[in-house]
Design goal:
This protein is mainly α. It has a domain of 153 residues. The protein has 8 helices and no strands. The protein is globular. The termini are far apart. Bound molecules: zinc ion (2 copies). The site of one zinc ion (ZN) has 8 residues, from loops. One zinc ion binds next to loops.
Length: 220
């Protein structure tokens, strides 16, 4: 279903590989920057159009069982992972994140919010329950001008339905620690908590609706 972006260096000898169990590298907990040499699973095929860096990092963290502070450290060498950084191009180290996720700078920039007046983003995390169910959060969901999800026409929500907590949309260790869940009580933001193993492609009608809205909002 998906490919590993990086696997430990394969043996050149099939016989040796067959007789030796695969050994995955152990990540040091104070590892400041993940590199492909350390080995981790990620594929840009897991991503959908106009997906925000929030859900990209949630998928990355969930797929690799990474604690939030390790994921947050991939965003900038200088930022405090517990304080976090805003998902803005000027706040994160584009090259560093591209190296980690093997994304192009263009694709990464499309997943970030823009601090421009015309496209002001909401600093409180906003989500569509149907989108979150399939592991998706869009840059469009954070635009102040959007009140419904373009794909489902459902009102965007900010509060956890269990405890009412509203999370700041800041890429901090705490926020990244709980993929697709409330970072206060850990209840899922949707009916079922997304698992990367159950990922399914976005429906064509949803893809068209999201992409059309993105063009209307960002490129006109
Ligand atoms: Zn939706
Ligand atoms: Zn909650």
């Amino acid at each position: 279903m998906f490919s590993l972006v990086m696997l430990p260096v394969a043996s050149s000898s099939p016989r040796k590989a067959a007789s030796s169990p695969l050994r995955f590298p152990i990540l040091s907990l104070d590892e400041r920057k993940l590199t492909p040499a350390l080995g981790y699973a990620f594929s840009t095929k897991w991503l959908d159009p106009c997906e925000s860096l929030v859900s990209i990092l949630w998928k990355f963290g969930q797929a690799n069982g990474l604690p939030g502070y390790i994921v947050a450290r991939q965003l900038s060498a200088d930022a405090d992972p517990y304080e976090g950084v805003a998902p803005l191009a000027e706040s994160i180290d584009i090259r560093r994140v591209c190296d980690t996720l093997l994304m192009s700078p263009k694709a990464l920039r499309a997943s970030l919010f823009i601090g421009a007046p015309r496209r002001r983003y909401c600093t409180i995390f906003r989500y569509c329950r149907k989108c979150v169910m399939r592991g998706y959060h869009s840059v469009l969901h954070q635009l102040e001008t959007e009140v419904v999800c373009p794909a489902h026409q459902r009102p965007l929500e900010t509060a956890c339905r269990r405890c009412g907590f509203e999370a700041q949309c800041v890429l901090s260790a705490r926020f990244l620690e709980t993929p697709f869940r409330c970072s206060y009580c850990r209840a899922g933001y949707s009916y079922n908590v997304f698992s990367i193993l159950k990922r399914r492609p976005m429906d064509k009608s949803e893809r068209v609706a999201i992409t059309r809205r993105y063009f209307e909002r960002y490129l006109t």
